[in-house]
Amino acid sequence: MTFRDVILSMLVAVLAAGLVLVERKLTDAIDAYRSNTETNVLSVSVNKALTEAMLEQNEARKSDLSQLSKLKSEIEELKDMKLLLEEKILKAEVATTYVRWGRNDCSGSATDLVYSGYVGGSHFTHKGAAVDYVCLPSDPSWGRHANRPPGSAAFMYGAEYEDTIIYNVPDKNREVPCAVCRAKTRSSLIMIPARTTCYTGWEKAYLGYLSAGYHDHHAATQYVCVDEDPQTVVGGGNNNDNGNTLLSCANKMWLFKMPPLRK
Ligand SMILES: [Ca+2]
Ligand SMILES: [Ca+2]
User: Which ligand is nearest to the CA of 161?
Assistant: First the structure.
């Protein structure tokens, strides 16, 4: 081999090495391009998915906001309804009525007089008579069958005070007035016997003496509270009519022997 041949062989070897190097670089470049392309595709897909998720989330948020706004509106409407109902309740006509026995007027600024009149009831000698006291109006009116003959009728008599000390009357011949009272803003009424004060939460309408008919009379009566400062019927006179009677209660029931009540 000549020197020229040697040189040529070396040149061929260098060229071959250069070609291998170029091929390797090309392969790397192609791999890098592929890798970048895949990454880009992946990135686009991820971005698209993220965008879609955000759009869905925004839509859901819009829906939630709409629901929330609707709920707030409904709550406001309910609040308005509640206020209206409370206003109606406050303005509602709440009242109760009672008879004030022994007086022709009512007590308290929140109490109206419905009517006043006279206490009536059965005759004290009549067996089987009605037991209740009634407050007869001073301006009665007749129905269709006025003034029937008394053959088989029930009777009504005026009541007299039969105790001069308790009721502070000059004799046992005075008639008893009454008043039907309407207590505004009150919804319940009870008569509490054997107490001079109310229980917690209750307000006194009036104070009086527990009264009923005489224990040995034929006709039964009922317990009523006669005002502690009773009046007499104006113009009633002092005849001893003795139709219906009112006496204060003597504390002889076994209950009243129990402490702390006195006999
Ligand atoms: Ca009498
Ligand atoms: Ca009389």
Answer: 1
Mean pLDDT of the chain: 83
pTM equals 0.63
Assign residue 185 a region: left if phi > 0, alpha if psi is -120 to 50, beta otherwise? left
CA 19 to ligand 2 center in whole angstroms:
149
Look up residue 171 and give its DSSP letter: S
- Cis bond upstream, residue 149 (ω within 30): no
- Ligand located closest to 213 CA: 1
Tell me whether strands 157-161 and 244-248 are parallel, antiparallel or unpaired. parallel
How far away, in angstroms, is 168 Cα from ligand 1 center?
14
Those residues whose C-beta lies under 8 Å from the C-beta of residue 183, and which sit 6 or more positions away, are 95, 96, 97, 98, 108, 110, 111, 189, 205
Residue 165 CA, chain-centre distance (Å), reads 45
Token match 């879609």: residue?
Answer: 52
- CA-to-CA distance for 20 and 184, rounded, in angstroms? 114
- The candidate with the shortest Cα–Cα distance to 230, out of 85, 128, 147, 119, is 119
- In this predicted model, what pLDDT tens digit does every residue of 77-94 receive, in sequence order? 999 999 998 887 777 778
153 three-state secondary structure? coil
Q: Which chain residues have CB less than 5 Å from ligand 2, an ion?
A: 173, 239, 241
Ligand with an atom nearest the CA of residue 172: 1
Give which of 252, 188, 190, 257 is closest to 225, Cα–Cα. Answer: 190
CA 177–ligand 2 middle distance (angstroms): 12
